[in-house]
Amino acid sequence: MEMIDCPSPNFDDRALPVTMVVLHYTGMPDCQGALDRMTSPEAKVSAHYCIDEDGTVYGLVDEDKRAWHAGKSYWRGVTDINSASIGIEIVNPGHEFGYRPFPDEQIASLLPLLASIKDRHAISRGNIVGHSDIAPARKDDPGELFPWWELAKRRLALPSPTRDLIDPYWTDAAFLLALERFGYDVSDPLKAVIAFQRRFRPDLIDGIIDGECRAKLLALLLPRPQ
């Protein structure tokens, strides 16, 4: 894969092995602005990779180093997400500057990059997540327009369950316990539910725990052949 080196000074040493990938959108008007910010020492933010809308891939931080992309976050018991993850910034204006679908060229570059990272570090599909999954109270990215199904088709992310769904009729409290067991920080219950919906039911993001949400979460928690 062709990659343009765009080194960032914003990194330090890992304290944990790599066990996850976090996908972000840049949330800035254009790619150059995002690259400028991630390579500015004053900004103190970075990622390992950045993918422009035309599919150009930029390498900013070596994978063996800890990039600064996740902020305060949590997933499946891990709180130092930066130490445990590879961060990929995907150029998109985001909700603040005119959120729009991710171009085919961009996703076509993401897929082989993600596959190589997943294989290299033996990362499970359940640990390929969005920024909103690990920081539901703070973040919305990569958002409801991100094509998770394209990743899931290639076993690069968990699919949203759609077949043979069974509503377990959990109480809301039981749903939140199950959501925490799945991996989410549920300290802000409404934001946690919204993050789950944004990821697994993007056509209806209302923060309401309904039968479809319960059934999808139950299916995600049930063991499946790998």
Question: What attributes characterize this protein structure?
Answer:
226 residues; alpha/beta; two-stranded antiparallel ribbon; 8 strands
Molecular structure report:
The protein is of the alpha/beta class. It has nine helices and eight strands. The protein has helices spanning about 30-40, 80-85, 95, 105-120, 130-135, 150-155, 170-180, 190-200, 210-220, and strands at about 5, 10-15, 20-25, 50, 55-60, 65, 85-90, 130. A hairpin with a 5-residue loop joins β4 (about 50) and β5. α7 runs parallel beside α9 (about 210-220). The protein is globular, with a radius of gyration of 17 Å.
Query: Mean pLDDT score, rounded?
Result: 97
Strand order of the largest sheet: 1-5-4-7-3-8
What gyration radius follows from the Cα positions, in whole Å? 17 Å
Q: What is the terminal-to-terminal distance?
A: 28 Å
| SSE succession | EEEHEEEHEHHEHHHHH
Tally the helices: 9
Proportion of beta-strand residues: 5-15%
**Shape call:** globular
Number of strands: 8
Secondary-structure class: alpha/beta
Which spans of ≥5 residues are poorly predicted at pLDDT below 50? Answer: none
* Main beta-sheet strand count, sense and barrel state: 6 strands, mixed
Percent helix range: 25-40%
Architecture blueprint of SSEs:
Blueprint: E1 4-5, E2 11-13, E3 20-25, H1 31-38, E4 49-51, E5 57-59, E6 65-67, H2 81-84, E7 85-90, H3 94-97, H4 104-121, E8 128-130, H5 131-134, H6 148-153, H7 172-182, H8 189-200, H9 211-221
Parallel strand pairs: 1-5, 3-7, 3-8, 4-7
Antiparallel strand pairs: 2-6, 4-5
Helix pairs in contact: 7-9
